[in-house]
Amino acid sequence: MTEQNETIDLLRNSAAGFAKFDGKRIRGWRANAPGFDRAHWRQMAEQGWLSILVPEAEGGLGLGVEAASAVAGELGRACAPEPFVMAGILAPALLAQATNTALKAELLPAVLAGETVVSLAWQPATGGLSPDATEITAKRQAGQIILSGEARFVSPAQADGYMVLAREQGGLLLAWVPADSLGDSLVEEAGPDGIPSGRLRLSDLRLPETAVLMSGNRVAEAVQTALDQALIVQSAELCGLMQRSLDMTLDYLKTRQQFGVAIGSFQALQHRSVDLFIQQELARHATAAAIQKAEAGASGAALSQAASSAKARAAEAGMLIGTQAIQLHGAIGFTDEYDLGLYVNRTMRLAASLGNAAEHRRRFDDLSEGA
Amino acid sequence: MSFHYGVTQERDWNALSDTEFRQILRAEFEAHYPAELRYAPRRLRWHENKDWYLRMAEKGWIAPNWPVEYGGMGLSAAKLLIFQEEVERWGIGRYQDHGTLMLGPVLLRWGTEEQRRQYLPDVLACKAIWCQGYSEPGSGSDLASLKTKAVREGDEFVITGQKIWTTLAQDATHMFVLVRTDFEAKKQEGISFLLVDLAQKGVTVRPIRDMAGHEEFCEVFLDEVRTPVSNLVGELNKGWTVAKSLLGFERIHVGSPKMPEYGLTVLEKLARARGLWADPVFREKYGALKLDVAHLSDAYNHFTGIVVRGEALGQDISWLKVWATETFQRIADLVVDTAGPFAAINGELEIAGTRIDVLASFYKARPPTIYGGSNEIQRNILAQQVLGLPRK
Ligand SMILES: Cc1cc2nc3c(=O)[nH]c(=O)nc-3n(C[C@H](O)[C@H](O)[C@H](O)COP(=O)(O)OP(=O)(O)OC[C@H]3O[C@@H](n4cnc5c(N)ncnc54)[C@H](O)[C@@H]3O)c2cc1C
């Protein structure tokens, strides 16, 4: 076993040990800001999970999406509410690439320690998948930047600060916007899993020019790469969610009795279960293949295509398994008390965020057309 | 070993790198396989492709899956996969290859040295063409209920009954059959595996025309057909075990993404010819199928990895067949849909300067979900043996 495989196994095992399903905890955070447990988040940071994609030179672990996916799969199985992909993978990976070294030196250690939670604000209301789609604009004036425009689906909504992707003359820039500078320009929109997303509406927000994390040619590529890595890790989390959902369903089919027999002995339900199993396996292999490509150094369009391949399947399979799991449970599956609902709601959020199955099928098709 | 089974191999194929091996295969296939037989829309008959297979026999390439000492190429699992990939890539049509695919492995596992010496050299030389006599009119999925009976008379078995759906029996010289030899025992325990020479009185082979208009399978009537007792393979009444042991490598083969991949290229060609390539409704469906095939391929690579590492495949391999064959059907169905009025024309036709056979993939896609254990049977197996759901 290589050293890297060993590290990944260690991470997976520590994640499996740490991330135990806890329905009471999950339900408890649903109505409570920020929707997840900051103490829990710090513990995740202590295990190094927020540092996985960050290069060693930047104080991270310098590992790849394989390691991140191993952790995400376990978090998915446990239905953990923590925003691992968005704030633990996407944000640190992007922040680590910032060219404003002074600001990075101030922020990154706190982010990796789980003290500072950061969200990326970029996606427009159209839900566009490319960094170029941002509808926030930036102007530079007398040592200041002035930001205006709207970003939706900011997740987690309640963060200590936001990396805002904006368009300025001649290109994109990424700005650091501390939460306390926002006033009432961020409103929350409830998520199916009880964790809100943010809607950011900026009009002439002025910040010192030192808030620019990076600008110029490299921004689009850096954001795109971080998004694609996040998509692969998110697919792994979806795999964990769907595996538990299907396992719960199979257990139920084996124990629930109707007409004097276990309902799992009915052939209609057996065949449907097999079709769900096939989707679960496809998602697992599609995600593993994307991980392999990323680890082999795929970049640019090839990485985007691998990410879309994984996310398209994971989102589709996750939603299919979730909705069918409800049906196969009968009424109990539709209750809030039964744990399945937590899984389906979490799946719904992840399936829809950063592009759903249909959007990624389209992106995959567009990208292979170009290839 | 003194007995000589077939041609001596010109080299140790497994010692070559994968790339070298592929190049050698490609050079041979591309130079010598008749262009007009590539990607044939139906199973070819022996008179159509026998020149090619006699050439393969002479080269010693007829049995890539057999050990070298028995006249095969002795390929490792990895090299065997490459061989199959290259055959499929070049669109080389199968002959009635049950002799190399099934009989050989059966005799190597269960047969006596006498049986091997008697039968394998002719299989290697393509002098004997074998077909598989399992299914009967009353016994398909419930194969163990089969009724064709064999009664011992002196040194012979006398066989009476009917086999059906026997692929290319009209080209075959021999048949391996499952017969009932004990009527008292539980159904799986009264079955034996026999080798039968078809060139004898009492054998009637009647081709059955399929819905595509081809004659690829047959009825085989057996009326007091005789075979020596020495043609019993394995023990008496243990034929079920013999037949079951075959389900190894082929199960991964039916899960190969090559047919669906080929289907996608037909679909693209057709959509372009019909001016639908950029149509968003078409693209939505095409994009979904493209990912279905891509993920089939991801999974196939996972399973072939297991084989190449020499590990055992689990029961879960069954899902690959289900997914591969049903994906091919969905592609074929979209081909028909995309063809519009051209789906009312059979055979190769011309659309806007492109030559294409619209219905070939539609017909080709039907049988794989039926044979090799129907997809419903595969789902039963998966549900009960992989997912652990209770039997009725
Ligand atoms: C092109 C082709 C070539 C063939 N070549 C050969 C050959 O060379 N030699 C040979 O011996 N046979 C051959 N077969 C036969 C093949 O093995 C049988 O068709 C297969 O075993 C199914 O049997 P059946 O056709 O009698 O269908 P049946 O078993 O009658 O099935 C009819 C339908 O009922 C379903 N069904 C049956 N049982 C169950 C169950 N328990 N649960 C749910 N659904 C069920 C089936 O899935 C199918 O949809 C060939 C078939 C085809 C199509």
Q: Could you explain how this protein is built, in words?
A:
The complex is a heterodimer of chains A (371) and B (392). Chain A is built from eleven helices and ten strands. Chain A is an alpha+beta fold. Chain A has three domains: 3-117, Acyl-CoA dehydrogenase/oxidase, N-terminal domain (Butyryl-Coa Dehydrogenase, subunit A, domain 1, Orthogonal Bundle), CATH 1.10.540; 119-215, Butyryl-CoA Dehydrogenase, subunit A, domain 2, CATH 2.40.110.10; 219-370, Butyryl-CoA Dehydrogenase, subunit A, domain 3 (Up-down Bundle), CATH 1.20.140.10. In chain A, strands 1-4-5-8 form a four-stranded mixed beta sheet, covered by helices on one side. In chain A, helix 1 (3-18) runs parallel beside helix 4 (65-77) and helix 9 packs antiparallel against helix 11. Chain A is globular, with a radius of gyration of 21 Å. Chain B is of the alpha+beta class and 392 residues long. Chain B has three domains: 13-95, no CATH class; 130-237, Beta Barrel (Butyryl-CoA Dehydrogenase, subunit A, domain 2); 249-386, Butyryl-CoA Dehydrogenase, subunit A, domain 3, CATH 1.20.140.10. Chain B contains twelve helices and ten strands. In chain B, helix 10 packs antiparallel against helix 11 (358-364) and helix 10 (318-339) packs antiparallel against helix 12. Chain B is globular and about 70 Å long. The model of chain B has no long low-confidence stretch (mean pLDDT 95). Residues 131-135, 140-141, 165-167, 217, 367, 370-371, 374, 376-377, 380 of chain B line the site of flavin-adenine dinucleotide (FAD).
